[in-house]
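Posted in: Structural Biology > Protein-Ligand Complexes

Title: Requesting predicted complex, iron/sulfur cluster in pocket

I'd be grateful if someone could produce the 3D structure tokens for the following input. Sequence and ligand are given below.
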Amino acid sequence: MAKKGEMLYAWTNDAALAKKAECGGAVTELLKYALESKTVDAVLAVKRGVDLYDAVPVIVTKPAELDQCAGSLHCGTILMSKLVLEYAPKFAGKKIGMVVKGCDMMGMYELAKRNLVNLDNLVMIGVNCGGSVSPVTARKMIKEKYGVDPNTVTKEEIDKGQFIIEYEGGHKGISVDELEEAGFGRRSNCRRCKVKIPRQADLACGNWGVIGDKAGKATFVEVCSEKGAKLLDGAIKAKKLTTEAANPKGVEIRGKVEGAMHKLGDKWRKHDFEALAPVLWQTIATETGRCMKCYACIDHCPVCITRADKFEQPDMMVRHGVIPADPMFHLRRFAHISDSCINCGQCEECCPSEIPLALFSHAIRTEADKFFEPKLGKSAYTN
Ligand code: FAD
Ligand code: SF4
Ligand code: SF4
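-- Reply #1 --
Done. Output follows.
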């Protein structure tokens, strides 16, 4: 019987799935088993859309259909948690399985705090996350830094600190550090993110710490809850998955990588926040001067659950027919959401005027954490 805290390597027994999956297919196999065993009624996952820069959310109820979701989409900057709300009426009373990155997981907890989802009805399979790359940046970066037509790229992966592409005619890797120095690489919120291993999910899965002959062929699984342990045990018993104890050296390496990622997150926070500190309010006023009132920031924020159309009612804070929105609109929004901001970056990602909203919100959140919770010194999730 697997136990909370246990660490192991896991891989699917299905050779065709293993070929398609990112690191051995344990995540897909666990989701398939969750459906087969009726642990969940449906799974919310993502699949590749028109190209590898396009992540499309899908609800799957037939186990075999989950194979189409195998693989990691590092340029799929989708947030799963807000999507759950879209389907909430359909999901009512149903058990749902989900794959969650750190930000997806935090988003689910924020929705649960607002009584919008019931965590008891969810099975969350976490994936470690070093970061994601905006599709627009990825295309530009591949063209300018790699000298490759982004439309010819057939595969992308992040391995050993490099963003690697395979394309018609070859493959090429460039270190993420070099890309970021050149203004490309991961989204800026991902650089500041410190929830690298999502331990508040039921299982935390990733490739960090998988060494030896299992490297690239198995996923490192950390059991984070009884629910996760039960799912894993069931899949092993049903002969869907094979596991072995994680190599102690691999456990050590994974710990070191996680520590290094936290340090890198701190470095980026210092870099981004210090530049902002003396001029924060002025910068907010100037940058939000481009706001065209599309309200995408409201629609996509997992902690902002109001309806955008409410703001332009008589007596509300935004004057109908006038752009840009008054800076006070943004300040009031920050006042409402910054104490819970999870730095998922969706507001910034979806803003057509490219206002660095996540930077502002995350800076306010981090400052407020220090001021109001100095003993805690970190957010509810880990950092
Ligand atoms: P598979 O069986 O291939 O299943 C992968 C699952 O991930 C599928 O269900 C799919 O729907 C889902 N998925 C794919 N892309 C996304 C996405 N963008 N958002 C949400 N769900 C998605 N592991 C590390 O140890 N270190 C890392 O730095 C790291 N970075 C990652 C960054 C991203 C953006 C993602 C998605 C994953 C990352 N992982 C990282 C996890 C790793 O790539 C594998 O997902 C994990 O090892 C499981 O492998 P698997 O073969 O069992 O998964
Ligand atoms: Fe991954 Fe964190 Fe970026 Fe979410 S915010 S995609 S968990 S690095
Ligand atoms: Fe995510 Fe922006 Fe909302 Fe923060 S304010 S939780 S970064 S959408």
